[in-house]
């Protein structure tokens, strides 16, 4: 981590010795912890737009920070928000959460229970406000919005993580050589997002949980539509399943009795 001089160095020293959230959760400390332009390739931070305020989530107190940056030559703005735990709760951990469907995660507080800093990103198209990728993938003339596609696909989370890790060390007054353990967790499209992060930003992570990754869109989405297409083509729509109370319905116990788990045969399930 490359520290700035003057007032920034003073703020860094203050953060290193701070013991309370109110001492570190200030705009001046946030600005001092941000990287100078050129530190992270393709990311120019706009320090004047940084915000900081204390907040509470599920009984955890944290510093709610927003940082805005732009991509040189693009004329865009990307807002990222971070939830930083109390200095006494901070465990030198950074947590990245995945989204689902066509959404990126809009919540930054998922890491607080682990003593970790968490983040979320607007991706440059309003993802923090609930805008989904399918709403912005096409321009009015039908051409592809490649900036949004790249940001949703991998770039937004990668930049949020690299910027967040740099910022976190400065915020808490850690040295550049200190370890900041970083973990990813996501399922479905969140699993796909996790795979993209490990593939493209693997050096940033120490572990990842990538459940049911939504890969191979060309096949996956066609398979989602196949049953409806077959029904429409054949003009045949299967009748509803018999009522559970119907006397003609086979006994569930007769078919599943041998599959009931016992203490010696545990069953583990995972649901996204």
Strand content: 15-25%
CATH class: Alpha Beta
Looking at the overall shape, the CATH architecture is 3-Layer(aba) Sandwich
Q: Please state the average pLDDT score.
A: 87
Organism: Penicillium frequentans
Keywords: Disulfide bond, Hydrolase, Serine esterase, Signal
Region (Disordered): 237-272
Biased composition (Low complexity): 257-272
Question: Can you put this structure into words, describing what you see?
Answer:
Helix 5 crosses helix 6 (189-201). The chain is built from eight helices and eight strands; from the N terminus they run H-H-H-E-E-E-E-E-E-H-H-E-H-E-H-H. The longest helix has 27 residues, at 146-172. It has a single domain (7-219), classed as Rossmann fold (3-Layer(aba) Sandwich). The chain is an alpha/beta fold.
Q: How would you describe this structure in keywords?
A:
8 strands, serine esterase, 272 residues, 33% helix, disulfide bond, disordered N terminus, signal, disordered C terminus, alpha/beta, Rossmann fold, Tannase/feruloyl_esterase, carboxylic ester hydrolase activity
Précis, in short:
By secondary structure, this protein is an alpha/beta fold. The protein has 8 helices and 8 strands. The chain is 33% helix and 19% strand.
């Amino acid at each position: 981590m490359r520290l700035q001089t003057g007032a920034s160095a003073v703020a860094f020293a203050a953060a290193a010795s701070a013991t309370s959230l109110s001492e570190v959760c200030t705009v001046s400390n946030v600005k001092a912890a941000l990287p100078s332009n050129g530190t992270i390739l393709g990311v120019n931070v706009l320090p004047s737009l940084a915000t900081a305020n204390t907040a509470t989530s599920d009984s955890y107190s944290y510093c709610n920070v927003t940082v805005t940056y732009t991509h040189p030559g693009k004329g865009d703005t990307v807002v990222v928000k971070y939830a930083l735990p109390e200095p006494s709760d901070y465990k030198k951990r950074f947590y990245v959460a995945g989204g689902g469907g066509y959404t990126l995660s809009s919540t930054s507080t998922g890491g607080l229970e682990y003593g970790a800093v968490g983040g979320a990103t607007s991706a440059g198209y309003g993802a923090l406000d609930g805008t989904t990728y399918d709403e912005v993938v096409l321009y009015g003339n039908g051409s592809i919005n490649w900036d949004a596609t790249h940001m949703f696909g991998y770039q937004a989370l990668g930049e949020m993580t690299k910027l967040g890790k740099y910022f976190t060390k400065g915020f808490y007054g850690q040295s550049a050589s200190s370890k900041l353990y970083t973990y990813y967790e996501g399922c479905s499209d969140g699993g796909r997002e996790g795979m993209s992060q490990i593939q493209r930003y693997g050096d940033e992570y120490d572990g990842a949980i990538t459940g049911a990754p939504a890969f191979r869109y060309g096949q996956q989405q066609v398979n989602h539509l196949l049953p409806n297409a077959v029904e429409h083509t054949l003009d045949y729509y299967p009748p509803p399943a018999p009522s559970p109370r119907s006397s003609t319905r086979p006994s569930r116990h007769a078919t599943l009795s041998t599959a009931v788990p016992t203490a010696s045969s545990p069953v583990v399930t995972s649901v996204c």
